[in-house]
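User: Could you go from structure to sequence for me? I need the amino acid at each position, not a summary. Structure tokens:
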């Protein structure tokens, strides 16, 4: 009975995710020239403990879809990335209020406003800035090497990942990239129920002076809400050398 129950749960998860996947492929596929890439993956995690109360078997199904060139001009795109967790045996190791379904990405992008301008609306990690998740919009302008962007909207609940109005986020950032250098600088504001929750500055850079050498640095500072000063939260500096198959890294 337990085996059949597990198989049925597995089939339910696979069929539901496959239906979503096929549906989102068929619709953009009807548009001439649409470029569609997707992924379905299934992971089963099993653990047995000396105390049966801690035994669990969890099946996680992930569906990802990236569809671009959905219109004749090739300026419209759609992105989805979601997960579904099914408990096949025993109890769930997570708290009861955490949902089994999670949406990591769900947004529409548009590049037809002007040359070098990118607009995305929905749940996303802002383009060129992977620090924040936002249920809102991200607007970016860039030329061949330099650009900047602004983003803002609501923020997924950090505990349940659900859509809601309690949390909010907004920010602006600059970036510069060439074949051997990438650097960005951002200022971010987080809110909770209309009040300031956190404000911080962040910057990072990669530099490749040669094929064998890689330099990386990052810094983050929180704006102290009592004093107005910027307090150093963390900083990292690392150098890596890869003479062949091996590598040597030194960091602080």
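Assistant: Here is the amino acid at each position, in order:
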């Amino acid at each position: 009975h337990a085996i059949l129950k597990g198989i049925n749960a597995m089939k339910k998860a696979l069929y539901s995710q496959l239906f979503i996947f096929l549906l989102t492929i068929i619709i953009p596929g009807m548009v001439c020239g649409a470029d569609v890439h997707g992924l379905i993956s299934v992971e089963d995690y099993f653990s047995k403990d000396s105390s049966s109360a801690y035994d669990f078997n969890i099946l996680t199904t992930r569906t990802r879809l990236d569809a671009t060139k959905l219109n004749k001009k090739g300026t419209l795109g759609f992105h989805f990335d979601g997960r579904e967790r099914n408990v096949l045996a025993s109890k769930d190791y997570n708290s009861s209020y955490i949902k089994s379904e999670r949406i990591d990405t769900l947004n529409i992008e548009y590049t037809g406003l002007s040359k070098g301008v990118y607009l995305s609306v929905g749940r996303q990690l802002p383009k060129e800035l992977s620090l924040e998740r936002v249920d809102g919009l991200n607007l970016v302008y860039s030329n061949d090497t330099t650009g900047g962007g602004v983003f803002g909207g609501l923020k997924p609940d950090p505990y349940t990942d659900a859509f809601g109005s309690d949390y909010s986020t907004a920010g602006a950032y600059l970036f510069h990239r060439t074949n051997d250098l990438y650097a960005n600088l951002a200022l971010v504001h987080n809110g909770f129920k209309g009040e300031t929750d956190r404000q911080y500055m962040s910057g990072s850079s990669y530099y490749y002076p040669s094929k064998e050498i890689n330099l990386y640095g990052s810094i983050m500072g929180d704006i102290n809400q009592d004093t107005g000063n910027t307090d150093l939260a963390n900083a990292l500096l690392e150098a890596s050398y890869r003479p062949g198959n091996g590598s040597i890294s030194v960091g602080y």
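One structural detail worth keeping in mind: The chain has one helix and 13 strands.
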